[in-house]
Design a protein that fits this description.
With 608 residues, the protein is an alpha/beta fold. Helix content is 39%, strand content 21%.
Length: 608
């Protein structure tokens, strides 16, 4: 086995008052492609900085093979002091490196090299930083969230470029599809120590769950032993003090081991505050078009969003995803066509740049301000008052951070805070613009579970292919020239039906992402619509009156249950009203579903 190019041994580091790394180790050999995973705040970026030689550990050893070249991509690249992006990239070249590669990479990433670094967007700065670390083709690449602020074409290009390099890599990313494609080994940073598995990221979740299950069994055994030893300490040590000093020492070690195994208390607990139930039809766009000058962003769009849908909006940067989102939610009027919004909509928005967060406000004030009560100590979640410290813990914020200004939080912490604020607001329509930015894998998994169980509707803009696959029931894809096309399912389903969109680089769609062989499949044609029977036509005529009757019944029952003394005064009547309300709501949902099905069938037949 070849000796490691880079080796970190027994790394200890304390930031502030809490130890962050406790004997962490990592070895990078030629050809290694390691993904470094762990929850936000576990020290991944810190360990990568130690590996890059930018941060000194309190103790431990860092070894780099003599002559080996190392390049490090930070989360927030600093281009200050350079006149152009080309000058910034060329400054990263070493003796003997090809200067033409710097310009080639910039052009491949959509930059000319003449850009002023002071005027770059976050995505453009990220592209320039990628060109700087890739141009020398180093022996070791240390990449911290390389896909942040990149759109799907750039992510696809980056995946191809990294796969073609001979460099050893250590990669931190929330993009699971990228990790599955590139990684050959996993380093899991957990409670200050690093564990390694020499298999790809696809095996991480099973490995992690097995490890935690074994730890839980071990913790349970230690807890039982601890109870026995503490019982002995209470009732036996006084009579046999001298000969049991060693046993008392063992007890203290046992307590320390138990505390270390328990680690941080739980994981993030995400729960959205539910609003009123919206109407079955959430929004309808008919012939919607929108242009800016000579450029048409949306052209003759027809689409429907129903209650419970999880609609993903997919396209390259500049395709008009945010504009489309604003059109569908009524925040922007169309030039042509009409957008109809359903009844009783309560919209909750998570913006991409986290602009709603005041950097000067404290974490506690930001959370209490979610309910319009900044300055207090309560957060209203699902109608229940919760102390802000308890709500902070659900999102992995320790109590001592309550008075921390938002401006000093890390990217991942700001992402979790924005989620906490959004989910505390009552709503039945979640509008999420790049919600996965800077979130750790554990929080991503819980966010997916929340969206899967969310009773309302979700509109999602994301460049995370795996997240789209796991969350979305349908997607709207930019087809070029302002055209947007609906596809059932998520990212992989879209590829199976359409093949790679025109804005993706040639060959960027791995075969495993499609449901059939090849990347240019013809769209799946819909089965021919059946004819309407007499029974169907009669039901279509009768259902509106039936739905109106059920809605009136629901309103009557709801008004009855709004009486706060009803349960105390007459529990039987309260239970009867509750059961009736449940039945009426189920009947109304079924009637709306049936009416929608028949109405769509009627429109399809008329159009044909």
């Amino acid at each position: 086995m070849a000796p490691p190019l880079l080796f970190l041994s027994d790394i200890f580091l304390t930031l502030g008052t809490s130890p962050l790394l406790r004997g962490a180790e990592i070895a990078v050999s030629p050809g290694d492609r390691l993904c470094l995973v762990g929850r936000n705040g576990s020290g991944k970026s810190t360990l990568l900085k130690v590996a890059a030689g930018l941060l000194a550990a309190d103790s431990g050893q860092r070894f780099v093979q003599p002559g080996a070249t190392v390049r490090y991509l930070p989360q927030e690249p600093d281009l200050a002091g350079f006149e152009t992006t080309l000058a910034y990239v060329e400054a990263g070249l070493g003796p003997g490196d090809d200067p033409h590669r710097a310009r080639t990479l910039l052009e491949a990433l959509g930059l000319t090299g003449a850009e002023n670094p002071d005027r770059l967007s976050g995505g453009e700065a990220r592209r320039a930083a990628l060109a700087r670390v890739l141009a020398p083709q180093p022996d070791i690449l240390l990449l911290d969230e390389p896909t942040n602020h990149l759109d799907l074409p750039a992510i696809a290009w980056l995946e191809q470029e990294l796969a073609s390099l001979r460099s050893a890599m250590v990669l931190i990313s929330h993009d699971r599809r990228l990790l599955e494609s590139l990684s050959r080994g996993i380093v899991w940073l957990d409670r200050g120590t690093a564990r390694r598995l020499d298999r790809g990221f696809a095996h991480f979740e099973a490995w992690r769950d097995d490890t935690l299950e074994q730890e839980e069994k071990e913790r349970h055994k230690l807890d039982r032993k601890l109870v026995m030893e503490e019982d002995w300490l209470r009732y036996g040590v006084t009579a046999r003090r001298k000969r049991n000093v060693r046993r008392l020492s063992d007890l203290h070690e046992l307590r320390a081991k138990t505390k270390q195994l328990r680690g941080p208390a739980g994981g993030p607990k995400l729960a959205a505050t539910e609003g009123e139930i919206s109407g079955r039809m959430v929004m309808v766009a008919e012939g919607v078009s929108k242009s800016f000058g000579d450029r048409t962003v949306v052209r003759e769009l027809d689409t429907r969003v129903l209650r419970g849908d999880r609609l993903g909006i997919i396209g390259a940067n500049g395709a008009g995803k945010t504009t489309l989102l604003n059109l569908l939610t009524g925040a922007m009027p169309p030039d042509e066509g009409v957008v109809k919004l359903g009844a009783s909509l309560q919209m909750v928005t998570l913006d991409q740049r986290r602009d709603s967060l005041d950097p000067t406000a404290t974490l506690a004030d930001t959370l209490t301000g979610a309910n319009g009560r900044r300055g207090g100590d309560q957060v209203i979640v699902n109608g229940q008052a919760r102390h802000v410290i308890g709500y902070m813990k659900d999102f992995l914020f320790p109590p001592e951070q309550a008075r921390t200004p938002v401006g000093v939080l890390s990217g991942g912490e700001r992402g979790r805070l924005a989620l906490a604020v959004a989910l505390a607001k009552p709503g039945n329509l979640l509008v999420l613009d790049e919600p996965t930015n800077d979130l750790d894998l554990e929080t991503l998994e819980l966010l997916q579970e929340l969206l899967a169980d969310y009773p309302g509707t979700v509109l999602l803009v994301s460049h995370d292919r795996d997240f789209i696959d796991r969350v979305c029931t349908s997607v709207l894809v930019a087809e070029g020239d302002g055209r947007w096309q609906d596809y059932a399912g998520g990212w992989s389903d879209m590829l199976a039906q359409r093949g790679a969109p025109p804005w993706l680089p040639v060959g960027s769609t791995p075969a495993r992402e499609t449901k059939a062989k090849g990347n240019t499949l013809a769209p799946i044609s819909a089965p021919p619509a059946r004819k309407m029977t007499f029974k169907d036509k009669h039901a279509l005529e009768q259902l509106p009156a039936q739905m109106a009757k059920l809605q009136a019944e629901i309103a009557k029952l709801q008004a009855k249950m709004d009486d706060p003394d009803l349960y105390r005064r007459d529990p039987a009547a309260f239970q009867k009203a509750t059961d009736a309300l449940t039945r009426a709501s189920i009947d109304l949902a079924a009637a709306e579903e049936r009416w929608l099905e028949l109405e769509l069938l009627r429109e399809t037949l008329e159009a044909s």
